[in-house]
Protein backbone atom coordinates (compact mmCIF):
# COMPACT_ATOMS: atom_id res chain seq x y z
CA UNK A 1 0.00 0.00 0.00
CA UNK A 2 1.45 3.34 -1.09
CA UNK A 3 2.17 6.00 1.53
CA UNK A 4 0.38 9.28 0.89
CA UNK A 5 2.30 12.54 0.59
CA UNK A 6 0.87 13.71 3.93
CA UNK A 7 1.94 10.48 5.66
CA UNK A 8 5.40 10.70 4.13
CA UNK A 9 5.75 14.31 5.28
CA UNK A 10 4.75 13.36 8.83
CA UNK A 11 7.13 10.39 8.74
CA UNK A 12 10.03 12.65 7.71
CA UNK A 13 9.10 15.26 10.32
CA UNK A 14 9.14 12.52 12.98
CA UNK A 15 12.51 11.31 11.67
CA UNK A 16 13.94 14.83 12.12
CA UNK A 17 12.64 15.02 15.71
CA UNK A 18 13.96 11.56 16.58
CA UNK A 19 17.32 12.21 14.92
CA UNK A 20 17.70 15.40 16.95
CA UNK A 21 16.86 13.71 20.24
CA UNK A 22 19.17 10.78 19.46
CA UNK A 23 22.13 13.12 19.01
CA UNK A 24 21.74 14.79 22.42
CA UNK A 25 24.06 13.61 25.19
CA UNK A 26 25.90 14.85 28.27
CA UNK A 27 28.47 16.42 25.94
CA UNK A 28 26.11 17.49 23.13
CA UNK A 29 23.34 20.01 23.77
CA UNK A 30 20.62 21.12 21.37
CA UNK A 31 22.26 24.55 21.04
CA UNK A 32 25.47 22.91 19.77
CA UNK A 33 23.68 20.86 17.08
CA UNK A 34 23.84 22.13 13.52
CA UNK A 35 21.06 21.87 10.96
CA UNK A 36 23.37 19.73 8.81
CA UNK A 37 23.92 17.26 11.65
CA UNK A 38 20.18 16.97 12.21
CA UNK A 39 19.48 16.48 8.49
CA UNK A 40 22.22 13.85 8.20
CA UNK A 41 20.82 11.98 11.20
CA UNK A 42 17.34 12.03 9.64
CA UNK A 43 18.67 10.86 6.28
CA UNK A 44 17.54 13.95 4.37
CA UNK A 45 19.21 16.79 2.50
CA UNK A 46 19.71 19.99 4.53
CA UNK A 47 17.41 21.87 2.14
CA UNK A 48 14.61 19.36 2.86
CA UNK A 49 14.68 20.39 6.52
CA UNK A 50 12.92 23.65 5.62
CA UNK A 51 9.87 21.80 4.32
CA UNK A 52 9.18 20.76 7.91
CA UNK A 53 10.62 23.48 10.15
CA UNK A 54 11.30 27.17 9.59
CA UNK A 55 14.60 26.95 11.46
CA UNK A 56 16.35 25.18 14.33
CA UNK A 57 14.48 27.30 16.88
CA UNK A 58 11.13 26.05 15.62
CA UNK A 59 12.46 22.48 15.85
CA UNK A 60 13.57 23.21 19.42
CA UNK A 61 10.10 24.49 20.34
CA UNK A 62 8.59 21.29 18.93
CA UNK A 63 10.96 19.27 21.10
CA UNK A 64 9.91 21.29 24.15
CA UNK A 65 6.30 20.34 23.35
CA UNK A 66 7.46 16.71 23.53
CA UNK A 67 8.91 17.51 26.96
CA UNK A 68 5.50 18.74 28.03
CA UNK A 69 3.82 15.55 26.86
CA UNK A 70 6.37 13.52 28.81
CA UNK A 71 5.77 15.56 31.98
CA UNK A 72 2.03 14.99 31.67
CA UNK A 73 2.71 11.29 31.17
CA UNK A 74 4.53 11.31 34.54
CA UNK A 75 1.52 12.87 36.28
CA UNK A 76 -0.91 10.37 34.74
CA UNK A 77 1.32 7.40 35.54
CA UNK A 78 1.90 8.54 39.13
CA UNK A 79 -1.83 9.10 39.75
CA UNK A 80 -2.67 5.58 38.57
CA UNK A 81 -0.08 4.26 40.99
CA UNK A 82 -1.44 6.40 43.86
CA UNK A 83 -4.76 4.60 43.48
CA UNK A 84 -3.04 1.32 44.38
CA UNK A 85 -1.79 2.76 47.68
CA UNK A 86 1.70 3.36 49.03
CA UNK A 87 3.70 6.53 49.60
CA UNK A 88 2.66 9.39 47.32
CA UNK A 89 6.12 11.00 47.55
CA UNK A 90 8.00 7.79 46.92
CA UNK A 91 5.70 6.83 44.04
CA UNK A 92 6.05 10.29 42.46
CA UNK A 93 9.85 10.30 42.65
CA UNK A 94 10.19 6.73 41.37
CA UNK A 95 7.81 7.48 38.50
CA UNK A 96 9.69 10.66 37.56
CA UNK A 97 13.07 8.88 37.60
CA UNK A 98 11.66 5.89 35.70
CA UNK A 99 10.23 8.02 32.89
CA UNK A 100 13.39 10.14 32.82
CA UNK A 101 15.57 7.06 32.34
CA UNK A 102 13.24 5.89 29.55
CA UNK A 103 13.44 9.27 27.77
CA UNK A 104 16.81 10.69 28.90
CA UNK A 105 17.35 13.02 25.95
CA UNK A 106 13.93 14.65 26.36
CA UNK A 107 15.04 15.60 29.86
CA UNK A 108 18.52 16.64 28.75
CA UNK A 109 16.82 19.14 26.46
CA UNK A 110 14.50 20.28 29.25
CA UNK A 111 17.23 20.74 31.85
CA UNK A 112 19.70 22.41 29.50
CA UNK A 113 17.34 24.75 27.64
CA UNK A 114 15.79 25.88 30.92
CA UNK A 115 18.84 28.13 31.26
CA UNK A 116 19.95 28.11 27.62
CA UNK A 117 20.86 31.01 25.39
CA UNK A 118 17.67 31.05 23.29
CA UNK A 119 14.94 33.19 24.86
CA UNK A 120 12.08 31.46 23.01
CA UNK A 121 13.20 28.01 24.20
CA UNK A 122 13.73 29.20 27.79
CA UNK A 123 10.23 30.67 27.78
CA UNK A 124 8.72 27.49 26.33
CA UNK A 125 10.48 25.25 28.87
CA UNK A 126 9.37 27.53 31.70
CA UNK A 127 5.78 27.31 30.43
CA UNK A 128 5.86 23.50 30.49
CA UNK A 129 7.35 23.46 33.99
CA UNK A 130 4.65 25.88 35.16
CA UNK A 131 1.97 23.53 33.81
CA UNK A 132 3.60 20.75 35.83
CA UNK A 133 3.60 22.96 38.95
CA UNK A 134 -0.07 23.87 38.43
CA UNK A 135 -1.07 20.19 38.24
CA UNK A 136 0.89 19.42 41.39
CA UNK A 137 -0.63 22.47 43.11
CA UNK A 138 -4.13 21.21 42.30
CA UNK A 139 -3.30 17.84 43.84
CA UNK A 140 -1.90 19.42 47.03
CA UNK A 141 -4.96 21.67 47.35
CA UNK A 142 -7.20 18.63 46.93
CA UNK A 143 -5.71 17.05 50.08
CA UNK A 144 -6.57 20.12 52.17
CA UNK A 145 -3.98 22.88 51.79
CA UNK A 146 -4.84 26.48 50.92
CA UNK A 147 -3.73 27.82 47.52
CA UNK A 148 -0.72 29.83 48.75
CA UNK A 149 0.73 26.89 50.66
CA UNK A 150 0.02 24.46 47.80
CA UNK A 151 1.83 26.69 45.28
CA UNK A 152 4.85 27.10 47.56
CA UNK A 153 5.06 23.35 48.15
CA UNK A 154 4.66 22.52 44.46
CA UNK A 155 7.36 24.99 43.38
CA UNK A 156 9.80 23.68 46.02
CA UNK A 157 9.08 20.05 45.15
CA UNK A 158 9.54 20.59 41.42
CA UNK A 159 12.82 22.45 42.03
CA UNK A 160 14.15 19.59 44.18
CA UNK A 161 13.07 16.87 41.74
CA UNK A 162 14.31 18.66 38.61
CA UNK A 163 17.70 19.46 40.15
CA UNK A 164 18.04 15.82 41.21
CA UNK A 165 16.96 14.69 37.75
CA UNK A 166 19.71 16.72 36.09
CA UNK A 167 22.21 15.29 38.59
CA UNK A 168 20.95 11.76 37.99
CA UNK A 169 21.32 11.97 34.20
CA UNK A 170 24.98 12.89 34.60
CA UNK A 171 25.60 10.29 37.34
CA UNK A 172 26.74 6.68 37.10
CA UNK A 173 23.93 4.07 37.26
CA UNK A 174 25.23 2.96 40.67
CA UNK A 175 24.75 6.50 42.05
CA UNK A 176 21.19 7.02 40.79
CA UNK A 177 19.48 5.01 43.52
CA UNK A 178 21.20 7.13 46.18
CA UNK A 179 20.02 10.33 44.45
CA UNK A 180 16.48 8.92 44.28
CA UNK A 181 16.46 8.04 47.99
CA UNK A 182 17.86 11.46 48.93
CA UNK A 183 15.11 13.22 46.99
CA UNK A 184 12.42 11.14 48.69
CA UNK A 185 13.87 12.11 52.06
CA UNK A 186 14.07 15.82 51.14
CA UNK A 187 10.47 15.85 49.91
CA UNK A 188 9.30 14.14 53.09
CA UNK A 189 11.02 16.81 55.19
CA UNK A 190 9.33 19.49 53.07
CA UNK A 191 5.91 17.81 53.39
CA UNK A 192 6.31 17.40 57.16
CA UNK A 193 7.26 21.06 57.56
CA UNK A 194 4.27 22.12 55.44
CA UNK A 195 1.96 19.97 57.55
CA UNK A 196 3.24 21.41 60.84
CA UNK A 197 2.85 24.95 59.49
CA UNK A 198 -0.65 24.16 58.20
CA UNK A 199 -1.74 22.75 61.57
CA UNK A 200 -0.29 25.73 63.48
CA UNK A 201 -2.26 28.12 61.28
CA UNK A 202 -5.50 26.17 61.37
CA UNK A 203 -5.28 24.38 64.70
Please outline the helices and strands.
Blueprint: H1 5-23, H2 35-42, H3 46-49, H4 56-82, H5 88-102, H6 104-113, H7 119-142, H8 147-170, H9 173-202
Helix pairs in contact: 1-2, 4-5, 4-6, 4-7, 5-6, 5-8, 5-9, 6-8, 7-8, 8-9
Number of domains: 2
Task: Tell me the CATH architecture of the largest domain.
Answer: Orthogonal Bundle
**Overall helicity:** over 70%
Q: Based on helices, strands and strand pairing, what is the structural class?
A: mainly alpha
**N/C terminus separation:** 69 Å
Number of helices: 9
CATH topology of the largest domain: Tetracycline Repressor, domain 2
- Shape field: elongated
How many strands in all? 0
Gyration radius, rounded:
20 Å
The residue ranges in which pLDDT falls below 50 over 5 or more consecutive positions are none
Overall average pLDDT: 90
Strand content bin = under 5%
Q: Which class of the largest domain in CATH terms?
A: Mainly Alpha
Largest sheet: none
Looking at CATH, the homologous superfamily of the largest domain is Tetracycline Repressor, domain 2
Give the SSE string: HHHHHHHHH
What does this protein structure show overall?
By secondary structure, the chain is an all-alpha fold. It folds into 2 domains: 1-53, Orthogonal Bundle (Arc Repressor Mutant, subunit A), CATH 1.10.10.60; 57-202, Tetracycline Repressor, domain 2 (Orthogonal Bundle), CATH 1.10.357. It contains 9 helices and no strands. It has helices at 5-23, 35-42, 46-49, 56-82, 88-102, 104-113, 119-142, 147-170, 173-202. α6 packs across α8 (147-170).
Amino acid sequence: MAISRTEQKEKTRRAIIDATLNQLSVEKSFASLSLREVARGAGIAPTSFYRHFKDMEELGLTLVDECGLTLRQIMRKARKRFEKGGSVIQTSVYTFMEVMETHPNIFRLLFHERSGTTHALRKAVDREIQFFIVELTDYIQAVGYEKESAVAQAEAMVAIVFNAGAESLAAKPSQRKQIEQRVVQQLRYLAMGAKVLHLSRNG
